Amino acid sequence: MARGRREEEARALLPLKPLEFSILVALAEGPSYGYGIVKRIGERSGGGVKLAPGNLYQVLDRLIAAGLIEPMEVEDEERRRWYGLTRFGRRVAAAEAARLRELMETVEALRLLPESGR
Q1: pLDDT tens digits for 74-90?
Q2: Distance, CA of 112 to CA of 7 (rounded, Å)
Q3: Which of 3, 51, 80, 102 is deepest in the core (most CB within 10 A)?
């Protein structure tokens, strides 16, 4: 598949829901299991994002169905279900990050951010 086509497919999934993007970012660090993903997201949000297990697993199932993440087999880990980011998932996360950067550039140009330290 041509690179432009893959990027087009990635952009077709945008915008991602905040939780979907947060999960992709968490898995960009490396494979993890449910509680590990929750912990990574919580650390990045300063504890501001709290996930219920049911919500997490619904989103994980959606991301698997979309081909963005995949279940993984981890040796000596029979109790936990591990997940990893696919190449396509990484492209989608990068496309969402670029979209958000463009949005923030517009926000800054319009001076919509509160002034800090004044």
Answers
A1: 877 778 899 999 999 99
A2: 30
A3: 51
Q: For residue 50, give both structure tokens.
A: 């709290």
Q: Give residue 78's identity as a one-letter amino acid code.
A: E
Q: How many residues does the chain have?
A: 118
Q: Between the CA of residue 109 and those of 18, 52, 99, 112, 118, what are the distances in Å?
A: 23, 37, 16, 8, 19
| Residue 5 token pair | 């086509």
- Please work out, in degrees rounded to the nearest 5, the angle formed at the alpha carbon of residue 29 by the alpha carbons of 76 and 96: 135
**Sheet strands side by side (includes 32-33):** 32-33, 82-85, 69-72
Look up the pTM and report it.
0.86
Question: Which amino acid does the sequence have at 38?
Answer: V
Six-digit token pair at 101? Answer: 């950067």
How many CB atoms are closer than 10 A to CB 91? 18
First to last CA, the chain: 51
Domains and CATH numbers, the chain: 3-109 (1.10.10.10)
